[in-house]
């Protein structure tokens, strides 16, 4: 892309304080967005994909100035958004528009479609009613409705048509950036694809940049040039959509992609993370935030077991930590007392626990074996905390000590592009110095 | 693929013939379900797929009397559950079947869970409604149920309240409540629509294991990916009618009704029609083929009368579409040329299919859908 980006985000943080008591003492912080940097080039479609709680919507709202960032900076057309005042602020509000998931939230049921679409024009100072009406009729046609629809009310339209109306409302003030927050999540598949086609077409026709925020990889795949994958407030991978989705480098991206069912009913395998529990964003895991769920978490250097055994050990450890163990693997303190042992909690021994977590066989590594056996015995006795501590002490991964920096994604085989974005995962190496990785590392490589 | 429970194999668990539900509105009668017939076998997962307004939810709700009458009117030639007619039952009789032998799960688990009661109480309550067991025995059963639906540390969590669980876990709880009466049929209406993909994946695993235990599932969804992941058979609905039905591999391998094809196309990475080519979404006709107003292949014969009869459309015996072009006088080849399937191995199936002989033009194989 040439020219300066229309929107540039640097090390953006948005924390929400958790307060308690009359004095609203801060007892913690939800780190909804925790150090995010990206650029939106003019006329491009950038996707932010992530699950609920990843911080993608907060990021979008902060970009639009709807939320005050806790730290970091959003620049729009070179100017810091938080410093805009007066006319500049008004201009920014015109040039950056939002489309929300549910068009009913964006449309006043008592306003005709014409009034709704004309409202932004009026607010931004177009007082000539006749000209407003002409512009509205033109815009309605551009979004696939008719000029006659201006006199009708929102309830007379289907969900997809209402979304067209809210697109018209965003489009009418000729913005440079549209933030589309789950624009099609409430719509049926065929309507979804029409709305995405429409957004795509107006983006090209009017050279408007679109920031898509979605949990739906189909939406991202279809509409975005580049994608950034968010997990617990951070961007873990980014790059050209085609290469990231075809060849995901971050384990989280892989889990996300493999969790989406294939359209081929003979291929029914669904991917899964190591553990299912999403950590609390007020207390994110140390190091790489994905490590307790990561199927590819790095084993301790001094551990000599096979890869599959390590995976079982890591699964054991982080399941215990997350409280996810199958019932068969946890002793039942209630039933220990009194009864002669052949009731519900019967015969749980270290061996049954180990069978339940797939670590029945003796491990070749004596230290690992001792730790697994200790933890299993503690669990059999119902002491989850002791098991957790034992496993945490014995099997510490570099992934929990060290926060991965963004490094170049491995180049696609046979691809012409020099780089295809960045990934924040220690499996792909650690960058020696922070300076080696530029904040927005998905442009071209240095040298 | 279907695992069967004991019992006569010949009678399906649920058999529905010509179900019609119309709803009185200000503008006259709305024919929400307009002549729907299908079976659900034991241990089978049947998916009703369609867009909002296609009648898929109303179909399910009509079966168990969940549609308020009036304003609705439900009629059918037959609705038989386990060999017995349920259509003419009283509300009380229906209530005992619904819940115990047929259970519902909805999109929003909050609708099934009471926020002011601990989850253990809610699960034991539903166990004790259906079965005369002591409180402590019911509590033991509740623990088993929570384990079965994959709630970790089930015993500890009996005393937690619904809001202390994540959305995915709440849906598991709602499923546990539904399974409390050990139902033969679980009707699940968009059960994964409100959850993240990683959570959805685990819920789909859970549905598979429920079917593995012998319960049949009638799953309502708008999401073809969910269908591909769990269905044994598929019913595609449009405008209150079933337009295509068949084994999931056959329907996904050779989507044959023009509507099914349009649905599949919307998942593809097409360049998309320009705005002018956008199909007009006018009124859905109330007779003949309901899709004809949008159908690129519509002809005069599509209008009037009942919906077109079902014609076999592929090698799979049970794969049929309600489209005049597949009839004796029709020529389906232009429709077949449109078909795009997400499945790679179409060629093999086509070589077995009898229809291939009439139209020698094999449908070009679509590109494999990337995961």
Q: What is the gyration radius of chain B calculated from CA atoms?
A: 22 Å
Count of distinct strands of chain B: 13
How many helices of chain A? 16
Order of helices and strands of chain A: EEEHEEHEHHHHEHEHEEHHHHHHHHEE
Secondary structure: number of strands of chain A:
12
Determine and state the CATH class of the largest domain in chain A: Alpha Beta
Task: Tag the structure with descriptive keywords.
heterodimer, A: 447 residues, alpha/beta, Rossmann fold, 2 domains, eight-stranded mixed β-sheet, elongated, B: 371 residues, 13 strands, disordered C terminus
Could you walk me through the main structural features you see in this protein, from its secondary elements to its overall organization?
The complex is a heterodimer of chains A (447) and B (371). Chain A folds into 2 domains: 7-224, 3-Layer(aba) Sandwich (Rossmann fold); 299-396, no CATH class. Helices cover 35% and strands 17% of the residues of chain A. Chain A has helices at 56-63, 86-95, 103-106, 113-123, 129-142, 159-171, 189-206, 217-223, 241-246, 251-259, 307-322, 333-336, 350-356, 366-380, 384-394, 398-401, and strands spanning 7-20, 25-40, 45-49, 71-76, 79-80, 96-99, 177-181, 209-214, 226-231, 234-240, 407-408, 422-423. Chain A has an 8-stranded mixed beta sheet, sandwiched between helices. Chain A has a 4-stranded antiparallel beta sheet with strand order 2-1-4-5. Chain A is elongated. Mean pLDDT of chain A is 85; it is low at 335-345 and 432-447. The two termini of chain B are 23 Å apart. The interface between A and B is large, with 55 and 55 residues.
């Amino acid at each position: 892309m040439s020219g300066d980006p229309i929107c540039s985000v640097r090390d953006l943080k948005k924390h929400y304080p958790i307060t308690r008591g009359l004095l609203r003492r801060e007892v913690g912080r939800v780190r909804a967005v925790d150090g995010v940097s990206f650029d939106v080039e003019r006329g491009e479609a950038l996707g932010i994909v992530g699950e609920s709680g990843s911080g993608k919507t907060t990021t979008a709202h902060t970009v639009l100035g709807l939320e005050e960032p806790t730290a970091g900076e959003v620049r729009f057309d070179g100017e810091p958004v938080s410093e805009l005042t007066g006319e500049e602020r008004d201009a920014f509000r015109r040039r950056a528009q939002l489309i929300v998931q549910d068009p009913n939230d964006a449309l006043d049921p008592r306003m005709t479609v014409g009034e709704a679409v004309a409202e932004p024009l009026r607010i931004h100072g177009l007082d000539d009613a006749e000209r407003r009406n002409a512009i509205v009729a033109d815009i309605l046609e551009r979004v696939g409705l008719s000029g006659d629809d201006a006199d009708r009310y929102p309830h007379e339209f289907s969900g997809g048509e209402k979304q067209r109306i809210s697109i018209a409302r965003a489009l009418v003030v000729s913005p440079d950036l549209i933030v589309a927050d789950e624009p099609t999540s409430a719509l049926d598949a065929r309507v979804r694809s029409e709305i995405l086609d429409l957004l795509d077409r107006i983006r090209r026709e009017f050279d408007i940049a679109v920031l898509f925020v979605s949990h739906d990889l189909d939406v991202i795949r279809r509409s975005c040039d580049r994608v950034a994958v968010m997990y617990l407030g951070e961007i873990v991978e980014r790059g050209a959509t085609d290469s990231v989705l075809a060849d995901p480098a971050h384990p989280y991206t892989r889990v996300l992609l493999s969790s989406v069912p294939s359209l081929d009913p003979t291929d029914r395998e669904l991917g899964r993370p190591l553990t299912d529990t999403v950590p609390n964003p007020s207390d994110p895991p140390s190091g790489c935030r994905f490590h307790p769920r990561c199927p590819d978490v790095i084993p301790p250097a001094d551990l000599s077991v096979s890869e599959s055994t390590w995976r079982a050990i890591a699964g054991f450890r982080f399941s215990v930590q997350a409280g996810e163990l199958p019932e068969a693997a946890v002793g039942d303190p209630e039933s220990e007392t009194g009864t002669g042992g052949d009731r519900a909690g019967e015969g749980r021994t270290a061996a049954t626990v180990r069978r339940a977590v797939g670590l029945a066989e003796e491990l070749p590594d004596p230290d690992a074996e001792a730790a697994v056996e200790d933890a299993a015995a503690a669990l059999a006795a119902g002491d989850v905390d002791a098991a957790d501590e034992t496993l945490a002490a014995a099997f510490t991964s570099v992934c929990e000590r060290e926060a991965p920096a963004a490094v170049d994604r491995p180049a696609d085989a046979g691809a012409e592009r020099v780089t295809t974005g960045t990934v924040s995962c220690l499996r792909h190496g650690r960058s020696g110095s922070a300076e080696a990785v530029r904040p927005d590392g998905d442009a071209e490589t240095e040298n | 693929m279907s695992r069967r429970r004991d019992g006569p194999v010949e009678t399906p668990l649920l058999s529905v013939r010509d179900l019609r539900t119309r709803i009185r509105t200000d503008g006259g009668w709305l024919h929400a379900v307009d002549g729907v017939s299908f079976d659900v076998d034991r241990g089978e997962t049947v998916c009703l797929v369609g867009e909002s307004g296609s009648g898929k939810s109303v179909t399910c709700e009509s079966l168990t009397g969940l549609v308020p009458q009036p304003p609705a009117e439900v009629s059918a030639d037959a609705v038989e559950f386990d060999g017995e007619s349920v259509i003419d039952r009283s509300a009380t009789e229906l209530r005992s079947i619904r819940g115990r032998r047929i259970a519902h799960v909805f999109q929003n688990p909050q609708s099934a869970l009471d926020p002011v009661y601990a989850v253990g109480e809610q699960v034991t309550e539903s166990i004790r409604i259906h079965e005369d067991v002591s409180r402590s025995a019911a509590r033991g059963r509740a623990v088993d149920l929570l384990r079965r639906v994959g709630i970790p540390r089930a015993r500890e969590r009996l005393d937690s309240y619904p809001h202390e669980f994540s959305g995915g876990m709440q849906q598991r709880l709602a499923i546990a409540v539904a399974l409390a009466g050990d139902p033969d049929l679980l009707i699940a209406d968009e059960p994964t629509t409100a959850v993240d993909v990683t959570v959805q994946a685990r819920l789909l695993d859970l549905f598979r294991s429920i079917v593995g235990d012998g319960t049949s599932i009638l799953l309502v969804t708008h999401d073809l990916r969910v269908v591909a992941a769990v269905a044994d058979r598929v019913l595609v609905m449009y405008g209150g009618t079933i337009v295509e039905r068949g084994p999931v591999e056959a329907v996904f391998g050779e989507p044959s009704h023009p509507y099914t094809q349009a649905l599949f196309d919307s998942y593809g990475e097409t360049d998309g029609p320009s705005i002018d080519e956008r199909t007009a979404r006018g009124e859905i006709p109330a007779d003949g083929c309901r899709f004809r107003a949008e159908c690129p292949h519509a002809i005069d014969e599509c209008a009037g009368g009942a919906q077109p009869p079902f014609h076999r459309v592929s090698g799979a015996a049970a794969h049929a579409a309600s489209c005049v072009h597949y009839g004796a006088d029709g020529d389906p080849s232009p429709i077949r040329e449109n078909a795009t399937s997400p499945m790679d191995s179409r060629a093999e199936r086509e070589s077995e299919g009898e229809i291939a002989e009439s139209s020698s033009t094999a449908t070009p194989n679509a590109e494999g859908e990337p995961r």
